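Deliverable D2.4 — example input (structure tokens):
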């Protein structure tokens, strides 16, 4: 695990998966029908528990204000701050590694109780799994 600082909030728009984990690929495919993968736009996966299930959203960075509404997508803000993270190289060759990475990250004693899991697809092969640390516990 390594610390990673997200210096500013990231406004994104989301496509919700119909189920977890089976609906993840379809959510990303639907998102990419709306916006193609380009280097100028960051892409994410965002997940959190809700009443015994996992809610998952495929997300893309807004390039201009109001883009979420224009595309008919849910807006969301990934909060700035200190995160713990694990980079997974060639994630398509190790899909189970994503779940294992988040299990390790979620075991950290100082995670933000109001946080969520973030997958940052920083290119078409690699991703950074991140969980925000509790700002009240940072020194």
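Example output (designed residues):
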């Amino acid at each position: 695990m390594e610390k990673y600082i997200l210096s500013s909030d990231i406004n994104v728009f989301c496509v919700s998966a119909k189920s977890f984990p089976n609906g993840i690929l379809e959510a990303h495919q639907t998102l990419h029908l709306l916006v193609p993968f380009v280097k100028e736009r960051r892409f994410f996966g965002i997940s959190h528990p809700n009443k015994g299930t996992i809610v998952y959203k495929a997300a893309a960075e807004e390039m201009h204000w109001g883009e979420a509404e224009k595309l008919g997508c849910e807006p969301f803000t990934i909060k700035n701050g200190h995160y713990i993270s694990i980079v997974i190289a060639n994630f398509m060759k190790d899909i189970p590694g994503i779940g294992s990475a988040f299990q390790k990250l979620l075991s950290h004693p100082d995670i933000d109780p109001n946080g969520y899991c973030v997958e940052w697809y920083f290119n078409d092969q690699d991703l950074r799994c991140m969980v925000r640390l509790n700002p009240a516990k940072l020194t």
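Helices lie at 24-34, 67-71, 95-106.
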